[in-house]
Amino acid sequence: MPPAFSFAAARNHRGPLCGYCGEHAVSGSLQTALVRDSSVIDVVEFALPGQRIVHACCDEHLAVLVRKAKLEWVDEQWWFGLLCQASQDSSLSRASLRQISRRVRLSTEQLDAALRWNAGRADPVAHLPGGQSC
Ligand SMILES: [Zn+2]
Question: With contact defined as beta carbons under 8 Å apart, do 65 and 56 qualify?
Fold first, then answer.
């Protein structure tokens, strides 16, 4: 008996959806770009830090996505992500927040701004993944 036809699977074979309008690109018109994203820090592996790939169905929608990504970048979020990532480094397991911030080359002002950013979030974290209070 042949497998049941799956519309979902068929849709997936048409490639990624446009990040702006949610439609599939017509064959050959798919646009892809690498944009900056301050929320993208892989705490396990430092792959593509601060970047993500966007897909669009046309030039116009790609331009919108790229513009939107630029507006959404938040330095403080990026700095806080760097702190979170570095805090998990085994060589920094007993390090203070200040020592961690030095490791990722943040100034005192940047560290303070990153902590203020976290404190101002709807759901701030009390500790970095490495256990340091923040
Ligand atoms: Zn689109």
Answer: yes
- Please tell me the distance between residue 26's alpha carbon and the centre of ligand 1 in angstroms: 10
Q: How far is the CA of 77 from the centre of ligand 1 (A)?
A: 28
What residue ranges do the domains of the chain occupy? 15-72, 75-119
Residue 72 CA, ligand 1 centroid: distance in Å: 19
Band (55; pLDDT cuts 50, 70, 90) = very high
**Tens digits of residue pLDDT in 71-127:** 999 999 999 999 999 999 999 988 999 999 999 999 999 999 999 999 999 999 999
Spacing, Cα 89 to ligand 1 middle (Å): 40
DSSP 69: H
Ligand 1 center–CA 68 separation, angstroms: 14
Q: Cα(98)–Cα(111) distance, rounded to whole angstroms?
A: 8
DSSP code at position 91 = G
Instruction: Give the contacts of 117 (CB within 8 A, at least 6 positions apart).
Output: 74, 76, 77, 79, 80
State in Å: Cα 25 to ligand 1 middle: 7
